[in-house]
Structures are given as structure tokens and as C-alpha cells.
Amino acid sequence: MIVTDALPHKRLVTVMAGYARGGTLSAVTIRWIRALRQLSTQLVLVFDQDQVDGLEELVEQYPGLICLCKRHRAYDFGSYQLGLRIAREQQLLDGATHVLLCNDSVVGPFRDLEPILDAMVQQPGPVWGLTDCQLYTPHLQSYFLLVEQAVMQHHRLVQFFEAVIPQASRHDVIQAYELGFSCLLGELGIQWRAWLPISPMEDPRNGEPMLNSTAYPICSLDAGSPVVKHRALKDVSANQDGLGRTCSLMAEQQPQIWEELWESTAHRRLWQESITVAILLRDADLALLEERIAWIKAHPHPNLKALVSVPFQQIALRARLTRVFKKELEDGLLGILICDFGQSPSQQLLQLIAAAGMDWVVISSALLWRDLAGLQLQLRRLVVNPQWRLVHGTPVLHRLDDCFTAEGLTALLEEWGDG
User: Fold this and answer.
1) Which tens digit of pLDDT belongs to each residue from 180-211?
2) Model pTM?
3) Superfamily in which the 12-199 domain is placed by CATH
């Protein structure tokens, strides 16, 4: 078993694995590189491609920055292999206390990294990850690993990284190298720890234990994570907190990062389509319900839902609507609320809002139904500015959370009454 003493002052050699989409560094990646350079005595960047525009300027701006562009097709661990090889050949590790292995798969930092690394160094533990994961077997996630220099120089770890070869898929890389790294540490009796351990974290949707905290970006930021994974912003299944809410939080808390992300992202359409909208129908819409549903189906936005209330006493109407719109009801495209006969307009509206179940609501109006493009244009404005609480124009988009405030409810009632 290796026993090492944490040193009071860290001297950090960082190896960052990267891949620049389109061969050009984005502002988000440059921000991350600058944050790493501030932490590091030496920073080695290894990109899994033959050329990246913008690296020359960074080298000129930050002395001590080493860059390598080489297509190796071995994912992050292939870049870690080449970066560590450079560090050894140039004897960079000889004066280091720690080695940081990380990649550019993150957006951030949302908070200062220095106190986090200092706390890792000062606490017992020769190997740290930002997060760990329970999938397959407990292991550190390899996008951010801090390793004491003596451990990194262990001949078994040197052999491990030198043995990295291209794998068929990202999943194979995780199995062979991300899990393999933690397993090897266990075999050597080397303790590893996570800054944000997964063990106490629970899924807020059901109270069950989380398996992978990076799939809960809002929860992770709340717990103290300095980053959000890019995958949580481009894969709906990799974001259990919701794309819309994640984008909104980022834009509210870090407008500069959001602006940089928006300028460089390839996922604007996905973010727009993730916005959920409930259209609150009026009594007059019941006679035109087939037209309203046809309009929603023809609209290019996939996350629309219509809600209408029907008095309990109108038994025949309820039966007909249930029969005619059976598929739409099953698919969640339409919701029918049963109310008491003689409800006031305000009571009816409140009931519809309470049942909306979407992030945004729109009130039915002649202007809405007249033009498919109107709502689409409003959604385009919203996806650029997800921090907005209200989207003025035609139609007006109301954030559901604000509908229950005095100001929000008053505005909705006025709009509802205008119809």
C-alpha cells in the first residue's frame, strides 16, 4: 500500500484532453482553459485532432502552456496518455506535487476552482475526483481527477496509461479505462475520494439514490459543483433536471457563460423544443376543439398541450370529448378538467393553471390561432433568454411559477378577461 503525505503547497501539472468541434476553440473552452492555467504550474493541452485554430494565441498569452494536436482516436484517455508522456519527457512531474487530469466536456467554472483543489490537497487522500458514480461499479468519473505525483509515477499507473489503445465506443472507454482506473487503485490499496460523493445524493423526483450526479446538473450546482457537463445540455436522457430549467438557471446565475455558450452551441433547436407550453382554452374553444387540436399538431413545436375545463353536469359533452379525443388524451396532447357548473372565470383560470403541468402557459386568443408563426417566434425569443419570467408580445408567454404570484395572477386574469 502506498502512503503519501499531502503537501501544504501544491504545484500542479494539468493535462487537459480536448476536442474542438469544427477545429476551432469555442469561448466556453477558452474560459475553461484559462481557469485551468491559473491553477497550474504547467498546463498540457492534447486535442484528438490534427489542427485546432486559436491555440497559437493561447500559447502566446499564457507562457508555460504546451499544446499537442494529434488524431489518436482513443478518446480522453488517449489524450491523457500523450499528455503524461510529454510531462515525463520534459521532466515536468519532477517538481510537481499533484497531477490534474481533466477534459473539456464541461461548461464553467461556475465557482472558483482554487478553494476546491486546496481542500482536496489538505484533506487525506492521494487521489480525488470531482464526482464518483455508482453505475456498473463504484468509480471516480474521469473528467476531473487530481492525483498525487508519487501515485502518478507508480509503475503500475504508468503502465496503465501507456497501455491505452483506441476503443470502439465511449461506452468501451468507460468500461476499460474509467472503471479500470478506479479498480487499479483498489488493487494497489490506494484510497480515492470524490469531492461531491454520490452516496448522500437523492433523486428529487422520487427520493431514490442517484447513480450519476452529472445527469442532475441543477442538483449538482446546488451541491457545490463548479461545472455542468456538456452532455447534460445536448442529451435529454442525460439531464434529469430538465433542459429548459437548466438553461434558465445558467442564464440567470452566469449570464456571461450563458452568452458564450449560446454563441458556440449546436443545440439551440433542441433547447427550444424542450420548452413545455400549456395552452389554456376558453369555453368558446370547445366548439372548435378539433380545429384547435389540428393547429397544435401542425405547429412545429413538439411540446404543446391544450387544457380545457368542462362542467361535471355536462355528461354528454364529457362523454363525446373523451370518445373523440381518446388518442390525444392518452398522448397528453389534451387535458380535460372537470369543474363545477357556474364557476367564475377566475376560478376556471386558476384551475387550469394548477393543472397545467408545463413550464409556460399561453391563453387562447384569436391572434394565437390566426398565425402558426407567432408562438414560434416567441419561443425563439425565449430560448435566447431563458431567464425571462414573461415574454411580451403576441401571444404572451407566462412562466408557470410566476402565475401564482399576485402580480402574475393579476396579469393573467386581465388577459383572460379580455377574451
Assistant:
1) 999 999 999 999 999 999 999 999 999 999 99
2) 0.91
3) Spore Coat Polysaccharide Biosynthesis Protein SpsA; Chain A (3.90.550.10)
